[in-house]
UniProtKB/TrEMBL annotation:
Disulfide bonds join C162-C176, C250-C253, C300-C323, C305-C409, C344-C353. It is an enzyme of class 2 (transferase). Its main location: Golgi. GO terms for biological process: oligosaccharide biosynthetic process; protein N-linked glycosylation. It is found in: Golgi apparatus membrane. Its cofactor is Mn(2+). InterPro entries: GlcNAc_II, Nucleotide-diphossugar_trans. This is Alpha-1,6-mannosyl-glycoprotein 2-beta-N-acetylglucosaminyltransferase. Its EC number is 2.4.1.143. Substrate binds at Q89, V90, H91, N92, R93, D120, Q195, M196, K197, H198, H199. Pathway: Protein modification; protein glycosylation. GO terms for cellular component: Golgi membrane; Golgi stack. It comes from the Eukaryota.
Length: 434
């Protein structure tokens, strides 16, 4: 099997894509130059997919990723080592995003933050909402291998790909493109699921290793938020207090978690810290870690990129169990300062969703905490410490067996090369990193 992808002009991370005549911003792309092409022994592909509608957008987003514009920098900048770095992964659920931004607006010290919105969909109404933020510095970055940009070719869904439930026998009969790569459960890839993991990995590589504003910072901490989260007014205060206290009281803690699915913010939990080995379904909301921890994670990229698991957090768990010498330890605030409000979305079958009622319940929780004067606590208390890492076997969810996904993920990883993937995605050594 061999695959090929050809790009040669702009490089974001370790993966490159072509922008013809970039200096002339009004020029059009040659769509044949920008499409992705793969060739395999079981599928003869010689003609690239033409996508003229999406070609100008590829150029626009490439330019924005190169520009790295920071909004409101004159008012709240410059970015320094004291800046609070928060990244928000955004798809297209603007109703959730509006609530998240409103909650940011009400948070103390948000003016000291740089909010980095990472998008896999380009929509004018979402951009307008973000660009109207006037209470903090803002940057937008755009995942460059999205389904929106490549709807009918990998990393999107090629019409020649095998359907999810086609089965191996039918796949062989139809000679579909990726018949050699069913997952653990006999299913074939679905791009709407693989995109989430790709985007999450690209975003971290981009922010920690490539942005001009972070490249010179030695060991900044990045807080990870998603579009369907909602923050309490004291989330930054708690975040900073945890950083300071854990430096002395839990030096082995390398992840902070500000969200939890099971607890409420009340007079018992408001200042309680729980120390435990990082566990995906307990500690994956409102995570924060520094560049030192990121570099250790990045060095285990194969355990993330080639693991048959479409969820980023379960893939991170695989890294933690099988690769990291110094395991991930979490400090979790039991009284949550980040809430999950996304009752509908790609992971949820529920269709009758009422985000307004969800927000009302959370606001009641927060207002009750304000009345009880338990926000902005003077002291944090470590009430539970568990240093034993689980030994039960990991169970993967599949959805990530296609070699093309493995290679795309690895090639987006800074300083991480795979010999097989190096042939699939030829290096462009004459191009400077952005």
């Amino acid at each position: 099997m061999w695959c090929k992808i050809e790009f040669n002009m702009f490089k974001i991370g370790a993966f490159s894509y072509k922008l013809d005549n970039f200096q002339n911003q009004n020029s059009d792309f040659n769509e044949n130059d920008t499409a992705l092409e793969f060739n395999t022994d079981n599928a003869k592909i010689s003609k690239q997919q033409q996508q003229p509608k999406s070609v100008p957008l590829k150029k626009l987003l490439a330019m924005k990723n190169v520009e790295q514009k920071i909004l409101n920098e004159k008012k709240y900048g410059p970015v320094t080592k004291e800046t609070i770095f928060i990244t928000i992964q955004v798809h297209n659920r603007i109703e959730y995003l509006k609530y998240l931004i409103d909650s940011f607006r009400n948070a103390k010290d948000i003016d000291k933050a740089l909010l980095i919105f990472s998008h896999d969909v380009y929509e004018n109404n979402i951009n307008e909402l973000i660009q109207n933020i006037d209470f903090a510095m803002v940057m937008q970055i755009f995942y460059p291998y999205s389904i929106q940009l490549y709807p009918n070719v990998f990393p999107g869904t090629d019409p020649r790909d095998c359907g999810r439930d086609i089965g191996k026998e039918k796949a062989i009969e139809t000679d579909c493109f990726n018949l050699q790569y069913p997952d653990t459960y006999g299913h074939y890839r679905e791009s709407k699921y693989t995109q989430m993991k790709h985007h999450w990995w690209w975003k971290l590589n981009r922010i920690f290793d490539e942005l001009k504003v972070t490249k010179e910072l030695k060991n900044f901490i990045l807080l990870l938020v998603e579009e369907d989260h909602y923050v309490a007014p004291d989330f930054i205060y708690i975040y900073k207090r945890m950083q300071r206290s854990l430096h002395l009281e839990c030096p082995k803690c390398n992840i902070i978690a500000l969200g939890t699915y099971s607890q409420t913010l009340d007079s018992m939990s408001y200042n309680q810290i729980e120390i435990a080995p990082w566990t995906t379904n307990l500690h994956n909301m409102g995570m924060a870690f520094n560049k030192t921890t990121w570099l250790k994670i990045r060095n285990c990229a194969e355990y993330f990129c080639t693991y048959d698991e479409y969820n980023y957090d379960f893939s991170l768990q695989n890294i933690n169990r099988k690769c990291l010498k110094e395991k991930l330890f979490t400090a979790l605030i039991r009284g949550p300062r980040i809430y999950h409000v996304g009752e509908c979305g790609i992971h949820h079958a529920k269709t009758n969703c009422d985000v307004d009622n969800t927000i009302k319940r959370i606001d009641m929780d927060i207002k009750s905490a304000q009345r009880d004067r338990i926000l902005f606590p003077e002291d944090l208390e470590i009430v539970s410490t568990n240093l034993r890492h689980p030994t039960n076997p990991l169970i993967n969810n599949g959805g990530w067996a296609d070699k093309r996904d493995h290679c795309l993920c690895l090639e987006m990883t800074a300083n991480k090369k795979n010999d097989e993937c190096h042939k699939i995605f030829p290096a462009t050594n004459d191009i400077n990193d952005l």
